[in-house]
Specification:
By secondary structure, this protein is of the alpha+beta class. Helices cover 18% and strands 27% of the residues. It is elongated and about 80 Å long.
Length: 236
Amino acid sequence: MTDPIRLSKRLAELLPCSRREAELYIEGGWVTVDGQVVEAPQFKVQEQVIALLPGARAETLPPATLLLHKPAGVDAGQVAEHLDAASRAADDVSGIRLLHRHLQRLNVPLGLESEASGLLVLTQNWGVIRKLTDDFGKIEQEYIVEVAGTLLPEQLGQLQFGLSYRGRPLTPCKVSWQSETRLRFALKAPQPGQIAHMCQAVGLRVLEIRRIRIGRLAMAKLQPGQWRFLGAGERF
């Protein structure tokens, strides 16, 4: 029985390759130990069977960005519970192989209230974080709001322009009826609680709030609890 050594060291000896190349193979999910993928270079091995999967590439992985249809009632601390292989959308066409590291150290640059559902961005990419935070006031977000009550034509105009929130006038936004019970809001820099407050100000009771678009990126066919990777050509 040999003493345990790091997987990266053993792989470098077996291939052979540099220790750094071995680490990249392992971190990329290309290495199996007794048939199981292991992504940790520091994993200790002894006499197990170590293999390199077909198509293996020793390259640095780019940071991941995920799009989740957050269900209502799920807060930021619970989001990670909805991220696994089973909840990945079947029509995800990104071509990205799911690794454990894709689901770690994710930031949520544009939050969504716990009681609201809809599109949520989770990312490891600093460029995406900076885009969504620095341009927060410029990026239009679209919501579908289920309401109960009666709305007069002049009150619809009030929703578009004329209301205030937390003592400050709200900037103009686009509000229209999508159906008899659903309003469509398209607005920039929404504040927590703002949409519910706007509806209540004109006598409407909010039943459901769902964010369906951030900038140019729509939630589309993602079902509640499903997620997918942001495609290489997609932009906010």
